[in-house]
Amino acid sequence: MTMSKIIFGIDVGGTTCKCGTFSEEGELLRKEEIPTRKDEGGSLILPDISEYIKGVLADMNMTTEDVAGIGMGLPGACLEDGTVNKCINLGWGVFNAANALSELTGIPVKIGNDANMAALGEFWVGGGSEYNSMVMVTIGTGVGGGVIIDGKPLYGFNGAAGEIGHLPLVEGETESCNCGKKGCLEQVASATANRMLAESDMPSSLRSVPYISAKVIFDEAKGGDALAIQVTEYVCRYLGKGLACAAGMVDPEVFVIGGGVSAAGEYFINLIDKYYKECVFHASRQTKIVKAALGNDAGMYGAAKLILGN
Question: Hey, which residues does 288 pair with through a beta bridge?
Answer without folding.
Answer: 254
